[in-house]
Specification:
This protein is α/β, with parallel strands linked by helices. It is about 35% helix and about 20% strand. Strand 1, helix 2 and strand 2 form a beta-alpha-beta unit. The chain contains six helices and seven strands. It is globular and about 55 Å long. Helix 5 crosses helix 6. The protein binds inosinic acid.
C-alpha cells in the first residue's frame, strides 16, 4: 500500500497527539473525585488536573432542573476562566422511583430544611435518614433506584459534549458497608450482591454511574484525537 506525503504527515501528527498526554481540567474542589478521575484517565494517556486557583473562582449555583443542566452550567462557566482548555464538570445524584425520582438533583442537600436533620451529625447521615423515613413500609420490589452521573466537557464557555452513566439498584431498609460516601450504604447493587459501600474504590469505578460516564468521555477523547478535534 502506498502513502503520499500528506498521509504520512497526518499519521505522524496523530501519532504525536497520541504520544502527547492531553490535559483535561476538572471543575471540582472534591479531592476524592479528582483522584478517581485521574487514576482512570492515566491508562488513556490523559492527564486530569484541577483548574488552577479553582477555589478563588466565583461558585456556580447548581439550580438546574436536570443533572445535565447543572453539569453544563458548571463546565461552561469555569471554562471561561481557562481560555482554550477543555474543562470537565460533573453532576450526579440518586433517583428513587417510589419517591418520584427524588432526591435527584437535590441529592446533596436532601435533608436541608428537614426538622429531623438536626439529630444527625453529618449531611450524608441526615440525607440517608430522610430517605429511610420516606421509604418506610415500601416493599423491596418497589424500592428501585438509580445513581446517575452526567459529565459535561466545555471549552471557552461552550459545551462540546456530554456523557451520561447510570447504575440500577435497590434501596435497603438499613445501611450496609463502610466505604464510599453519600447514599452508598443504602444502595444495593444486585449484579454483585453488595451495596456500593461494600466495594473498594476500584470495584465501585467498574460499576458506578461515574465510572461509566467517565469511560464514555475517555472513549470520546480517543476518537476526538484520531480526528484531530
Ligand atoms: P455532586 O455530583 O457532587 O453534586 O453530588 C450530589 C450528591 O449525590 C452527593 O452529595 C451524594 O449525596 C449523591 N451521590 C452522587 N454520587 C454518589 C455516589 O457515587 N455514591 C453515593 N452518593 C452519591
Amino acid at each position: 500500500m502506498g502513502y503520499d506525503a500528506t498521509t504520512i504527515r497526518t499519521s505522524k501528527y496523530r501519532e504525536h497527539r497520541r504520544m502527547t498526554a492531553r490535559t483535561v481540567l476538572l471543575a471540582t474542589s472534591n479531592a476524592g473525585k479528582l483522584r478517581d478521575f485521574a487514576g482512570a484517565a492515566a491508562a488513556f494517556g490523559i492527564t486530569i488536573a484541577n483548574i488552577p486557583n479553582f477555589s478563588s473562582l466565583p461558585e456556580v449555583v447548581e439550580d438546574g432542573a436536570t443533572f445535565e443542566e447543572n453539569a453544563r452550567k458548571k463546565a461552561e462557566s469555569y471554562s471561561v476562566a481557562v481560555p482554550g482548555e477543555l474543562v470537565l464538570a460533573d453532576d450526579s445524584g440518586l433517583e428513587i422511583d417510589a419517591l418520584g425520582g427524588a432526591p435527584g438533583v437535590r441529592s446533596a442537600r436532601y435533608a436541608a430544611d428537614d426538622p429531623h436533620a438536626a439529630e444527625c451529625s453529618t449531611v450524608d447521615e441526615a440525607n440517608n435518614a430522610k430517605v429511610l423515613r420516606e421509604l418506610k413500609g415500601v416493599p423491596e420490589q418497589k424500592r428501585s433506584a438509580r445513581f446517575v452521573c452526567v459529565l459535561a466537557a466545555a471549552r471557552d464557555g461552550q459545551t462540546v459534549h456530554t456523557f451520561r452513566g447510570s447504575a440500577e439498584g435497590i434501596i435497603l431498609d438499613a445501611p450496609r458497608g463502610k466505604n464510599g460516601f453519600g447514599y452508598d450504604p443504602l444502595f444495593y447493587f444486585p449484579q454483585i450482591d453488595k451495596t456500593f459501600a461494600e466495594l473498594s474504590a476500584e470495584e465501585k469505578a467498574q460499576y458506578s454511574h461515574r465510572g461509566k460516564a467517565f469511560r464514555a468521555f475517555l472513549s470520546w477523547c480517543r476518537v476526538a484525537d484520531d480526528q484531530n478535534l
